[in-house]
Amino acid sequence: MRSKWEVVHPEAQRFDFSQADQIVDFAARHGMKVRGHTLVWHRQNPTWLAEGNYTSSELAAILKITSRPYRALPGQDIRVDVVNEAYR
């Protein structure tokens, strides 16, 4: 299972959190911690993003709407490294 940006946001107007949800659900059922690494990485950005011509403000807005709130259950810990080497 993968939860990189190209999987979570495969098209400009479509999100698919199903794989990330499966990871979080599995961890919750087994009392495990979750650490997502890393949502945005320059080698796995979606094609629509790489081929687009976006301003810095537009990119910031796109990244903001990519987020999905996961609430930790009591005793559970969820952490996500969001951006690591977003571009070169």
Structural notes for this entry:
The chain has four helices and two strands. With 88 residues, the chain is an alpha+beta fold. The protein has a two-stranded parallel ribbon.
Name its key features.
alpha+beta; 4 helices; 88 residues; two-stranded parallel ribbon; single chain; elongated
Layout of secondary structure:
Elements (H helix, E strand, L loop, with lengths): L4 H4 L9 H12 L4 E8 L5 H4 L5 H11 L11 E7 L4
Parallel strand pairs: 1-2
Give the structure's gist in a few sentences:
This protein has 4 helices and 2 strands.
Distance between the termini: 26 Å
Mean pLDDT: 79
Order of helices and strands: HHEHHE
Give the class from helix and strand content and strand pairing. alpha+beta
- What is the count of helical runs? 4
Largest beta sheet, briefly?
2 strands, parallel
What portion of the residues fall into strands of 2 or more residues? 15-25%
The amount of helix comes to 25-40%
Number of strands: 2
